[in-house]
# Entry
Amino acid sequence: MPRLNLKPNHKAIRYYYATLQQYEHQGITHEGAVSSPFDTLLQSCAKQVNATLVPQYPMRASKGNRIVIDGAILDAYGLPLGYWEAKDIDDNLAKAVQEKRDAGYPLDNILFQTLQRAILYQNGQGVLDVDITEPANLIAALQYLFSYVPPALDDWQTAVSDFREHVPDLASKLKELIEQRHETDPAFKKAFSDFYETCRTSINPELSQDAVDEMLIQHILTERIFRTVFNNSAFTRRNIIAREIENVVDALIRQAFSREEFLKPLDRFYVAIEQAAMLCKDFSQKQHFLNTFYEKFFQGFSEDVADTHGIVYTPQPIVDFMVRNVEHILKTEFGRSLSDTGVHIIDPFVGTGNFIVRLMQDIQGTALEEKYRHELHCNEVMLLPYYIASLNIEQEFFQRTGMYLPFEGIALADTFELLEQQQGELFTRENTERVKRQKASDMFVVIGNPPYNAWQVNENDNNRNRKYAVMDKRIADTYATDSKATLKNALYDPYVKAIRWTLDRVSKEGVVAFVTNNSFIDGLAFDGMRRHLPEDCDVIYILDLGGNARKGLKVSDANVFGIRVGVSINLLVKKRRNSHGTPNSFTTAPMRCGTKNRNSTF
# Structure
C-alpha cells in the first residue's frame, strides 16, 4: 500500500488536535465524542490510498460471535485492510486490548486507541505502543496501520490486473475450441444442440448460438471460484442449472482438452482470489467481495453484456433503506409484516441476491423456513449472477438455521419472457416447476433493482435491449397511448417495463420497492406514465437521489451508483379499491441515500 502523505502541519492532523483541545475545554471525555475526530482523521488517510473507512463495522469474530468494530478500512473490493477500535480516556487500554483479544477480535492489522495512546497489532503480534499526544508518534502509528499489506493481498492487485488482461484472450481461445467441436465432434454437437434449444425456449426464442457459447465460457472460467470461495465443492451437483451446463461441458472437453491444463494461465488469479477471500471474516463480507468481483469480471470479459443488461451493484445502504421501508409500509398500510404467512415476496431481477438476503435477515426465525420454502421468489436471466444469488441465499439460510436447504424459489428465467406465450420446459423440470409455482402465487411485495438503459453506450452496437411482444404492447396501450410526446422510445426502457409489469403482477394489493432511473419523474416522454401511476397506486413515494450527469453533475460526486443517469427509490402502494376510489397524486423528494439515512423511514 502506498505511504501516506502526512505531516504535523497538515490540515487533517491540525484539525484532529484542535478538536480534542475544544473537547478538553468542555470537559468531554466519553468515547462516543472523543473517537469522532480520530474517525475523521482515519477517513482522510483512507482516501489517500483509495480505501474506505466504514464505521461501526459488523462482522463475525474468530470464535463465531457477532461483534461491531469501531472502524474497518476496506479496499475497492470490500476486503479489510485494517481495523480500528477506540476506547475513552478512563479506559485501561492494555486491559481493554486483552478483553478484545479474548473476544476474538481480528488481530491481522488493528489499531487500539485512546486520546493519549495507540497500540497496534499486526499478524497477531503487538508491533507498536506509542503516546499519540505527540504528532510524530500519531503519524507513525497511522503510517504503520495504512502501509501494512495482509499476506493474502500480496499478489491480489497484480492478479486482478492479469485476470482482466488475460480473460478476453482465454475466452477467445475457448470460443475457437467450441466452434471446432461444433464441426468435428458429433457427441458435443448433439449435447450442445439440445441445450441450445432449451435455452431458446427458456430465455429467448431469438437467442443466438454465440450467446449460448458465451454461457459455457462463463461457466468454465468461473466454476472453480464458486466451488472454492464459497467452500461448496458440491456446487455443480446441487445447482440444477450448473448441473445441466456441466453435462454440456463434459461433452465438450471429453475429446477436446483438459480443463485444468487449459485454465493454467489463470491459476495464479484463482489462488489469489481464494486467498483474498480468506480475509473476509464472515459471509456478508465474502458476499460483497464476490459481488464486486462479478462486476469487475464483466467489465473485463464482456462490456456489451454488462451494457445490455444494465449491470449495477446496489449499494448496501440503499438495500437496507428499501427493506426497512417495505416493512414499515406493510405495518402501517396493511397491518402485516415480512414474516407473515401469505406475504409472498419476489425480486424479479435478482442479480446476485442482495435484496432477498437482506429480507431474510428481517424475517423472524420462527417464520424463516416456511418463508424460504414457499414464499420467497426471484428470477435471474444471466448465468453468473444466478449462480452467485443461489449460493448467497442458501448460505444466509444456513447461517440463520444451521441447516442446508437448496433454495427452490430462484429460477433462471427472463421475467418479461414469462408473459409471452405458454412455454415448454425451462432448462430443467425443476426450474420449470419453480416458475409454475411462482406464477401461481399472489405477490404481495416486489422489490429490487431492475436493469435500466434505453440506449447503450453506442447506438450502433449490436446489443440493444430485446423486444417483448406482450410487455411492449402493455406499454403501448397505457403509457405510450396517453403520452403527448413525439419521441417515445424511452418508454420501452427495461426499468419502465419493470414498473408496468410489477403493477400488473400485484393485482389487488401490495408494495413495490424499486431503485431505478429517475427520468420518469420529469422527462417529456413519460407524461403518460406519470398519468397512469396515480391511477394504479394509492400511495406513491418517490425519493429522488439526483445524479444525472447530463445535467452537469459530476458522476463521482452526485450519483449513488457512480453511473451517468439519475436515480430514484420508488415505493408504490396498491390497496383494495372501494367503489369511490379516485386517482392519487405522487410526491417527489430530493434525498441523498447513504449511511446517514439507513434508519430513516419517510
